[in-house]
Design goal:
Layout (H helix, E strand, L loop, with lengths): L12 E7 L4 E7 L5 E5 L4 E3 L4 E3 L1 H12 L3 E6 L11 H8 L2 E5 L2 H11 L15 E3 L4 E4 L2 E7 L8 E5 L2 E3 L21 H12 L6 E3 L14 E3 H7 L9 H12 L8 H8 L23
Parallel strand pairs: 3-6, 6-7, 7-8, 12-13
Antiparallel strand pairs: 1-2, 2-3, 4-5, 9-10, 10-11, 11-12, 13-14
Helix pairs in contact: 1-2, 4-6
The chain binds fe (ii) ion (FE2).
Fe (ii) ion binds next to loops.
GO molecular function, one term: hydrolase activity
Organism: Paracoccus onubensis
Keywords: Hydrolase, Metal-binding
Length: 294
């Protein structure tokens, strides 16, 4: 396995912003030594029934960053989300910063480009993003060293982003009592997800882990922060030495019973374009519904 350049001595200030409409947590990650920051997994609001898009959640992040005069350097997407829309371009227009995602986005664009019958003007080369990360690629936020770990399984392009002693796992893991995300989307695979989770759990025990989602299982309050040690010991799907075979059996049976996320159709069309809403031939923002296509 790749030896990743972990720097536990750098401890970013991490602020989570919970979006109750989609149970997503967006993060502002601030360098304690400079005024630099990054955003991980922003959310654009949609009333899908009405076809209406608004920006309350993204505006919270923008206001926070503006109020403190922070410099936004990166807008990171852990993956092409299927349950909420990214606000990356809206934020970039106002605050700058580079939008980054895993390089396997090209496979995701190929797959969903077919499902949504996109024309040749839809580029499938990831060029809508400013940076495509490969496994082990590093970058900086201010003086904080960061790197990406390829953690496929939920989707082919999933990356975990590690900033100092904080790892943003996307949908690779949920809180220990939430287990793991589904692995049945096109390009998903339960065994691959298990292997990716093992990669994350091979990081130092004290590494802080930040979730992209929490659903407050068994009525507990929403939480989004845990550690590698806690996940290893207590995660209900992979903790306590559960085998790959056990995980695959459980995950496959469970996924077969799950309904599609409510926002999967608009989410995929927007997120595979780095958060841009597609337009029709006259340039008007327009979404499609592929009938029996998913
Ligand atoms: Fe996801």
């Amino acid at each position: 396995m790749t030896a990743y350049p972990v720097t536990m001595s750098v401890q970013p200030e991490v602020r989570g912003y919970f979006d109750s409409a989609t149970n997503t947590i967006s993060y502002i990650v601030k360098d304690p030594a400079t005024d630099a920051c990054a955003i991980v997994d922003s959310v654009m609001d949609i009333d899908y029934a009405a076809g209406r898009i608004t920006y309350e959640h993204a505006d919270r992040l923008i206001e926070e960053i503006s109020r403190e005069n922070l410099r936004l350097e990166w807008i990171i997407e852990t993956h092409v989300h299927a349950d909420h829309l990214s606000a990356a371009p809206y934020i970039q227009d106002r605050l700058g910063g580079k939008i980054g995602i895993g390089s396997k986005i090209m496979a995701v664009q190929e797959e969903f480009g077919k499902i949504f019958n996109e024309g040749t003007d839809f580029q499938r080369d990831g060029s809508q993003f400013d940076r495509l990360f490969e496994d082990g690629d590093s970058y900086m936020v201010g003086e904080m060293p960061c790197f990406a770990i390829h953690t496929p399984g939920h989707t082919p392009a999933c990356m975990t982003h590690v900033i100092g002693d904080a790892a943003f796992v996307g949908d690779t893991l949920f809180m220990p009592d939430g287990g793991s995300a589904r692995a049945d989307f096109p390009g998903g695979d339960a065994g691959t997800l298990y292997d990716s989770i093992r990669k994350v759990l091979s990081l130092p025990d004290e590494m802080r882990l930040f979730m992209c989602h929490d659903y407050g299982p068994n009525g507990r309050d929403i939480q989004w922060e845990t550690t590698v040690a806690e996940e290893k010991a207590n995660n209900i799907h992979v903790g306590g030495g559960k085998t790959r075979e056990e995980f695959i059996r459980f995950r496959t049976e469970r996924d077969a019973q799950l309904a599609m996320p409510k926002l999967i159709i608009p989410s995929l069309q927007v997120n595979m374009r780095a958060g841009e809403v597609p337009t029709d031939k006259d340039g008007r923002p327009m979404l499609k519904v592929p009938v029996n296509g998913l």
